[in-house]
Write a sequence for this structure.
């Protein structure tokens, strides 16, 4: 069980005791050892903390209304797969520091729904080789972080031509980023970003390529933003992606900027 010591009237000071775990911390002149707080003239009250709170502290945010006190702690860590989310709790206390309410009652569950992500990378001549290699490293890190979740990836590179490095079906067969990325070499040439987006929508987000109807569809475009020689405009391609329910993100590389 975790317990939190709240001191008054100088404000809430949070602390934390995990069963069998000796902990001592000092906050603003208060000595706190397990569930004991020593400070002259300061009252103390214990709260049963939420079971999913880890290393939680209170008192970084306090508000009073009438005789009630709201003590909040933003440091509840929640592990979802390999990602760590920083969330928080607030406790509404009465004038005797009794807990009236915990907000929220419980933390939201980790996202479990299926997600299909197309990574669309700019391999045109305006991207320096060193930046292209950084892109590949970035892709590898993204894929590794989502490996334990229900997420599928597909990768297309574009310049004035287009290369599908792997689709969702191929990703399902081999989820090893290093193996999937080892044969990705920079295409070089012009920068047909809008045409590439349209191609992804029409050809990669399809069941034949392993995309799932129930999945959230995400397109991440990584480019220096300098579209060139493209017969298609963003106003043609982006609405088509939106109509297909695809959420689009753009990530800028090098010194360029993303137009849309
Ligand atoms: Mg370019």
């Amino acid at each position: 069980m975790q317990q939190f010591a709240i001191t008054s009237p100088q404000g809430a000071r949070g602390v934390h005791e995990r069963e069998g775990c000796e902990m001592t911390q000092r906050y603003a002149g208060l000595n706190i050892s397990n569930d004991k707080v020593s400070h002259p003239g300061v009252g103390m009250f214990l709260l049963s903390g939420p079971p999913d709170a880890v290393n939680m502290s209170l008192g970084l945010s306090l508000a009073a209304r009438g005789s009630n006190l709201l003590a909040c702690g933003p440091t509840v860590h929640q592990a979802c797969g390999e990602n760590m989310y920083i969330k928080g709790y607030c406790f509404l206390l009465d004038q005797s520091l009794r807990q009236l309410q915990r907000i929220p009652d419980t933390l939201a569950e980790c996202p479990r729904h299926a997600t299909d992500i197309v990574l669309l990378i700019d391999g045109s001549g305006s991207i320096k080789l060193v930046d292209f290699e950084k892109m590949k490293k970035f892709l590898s890190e993204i894929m590794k972080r989502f490996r334990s979740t229900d997420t599928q990836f597909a990768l297309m590179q574009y310049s004035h031509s287009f290369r599908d490095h792997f689709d969702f079906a191929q990703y399902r067969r081999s989820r090893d980023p290093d193996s999937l990325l080892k044969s990705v070499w920079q295409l070089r040439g012009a920068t047909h970003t809008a045409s590439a987006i349209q191609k992804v929508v029409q050809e990669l987000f399809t069941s034949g390529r392993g995309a799932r109807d129930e999945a959230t569809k995400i397109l991440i475009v990584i480019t220096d933003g300098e579209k060139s020689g493209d017969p298609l405009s963003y106003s043609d391609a982006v609405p088509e992606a939106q109509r297909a329910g695809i959420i689009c993100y753009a990530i800028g590389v090098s010194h360029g900027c993303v137009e849309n």
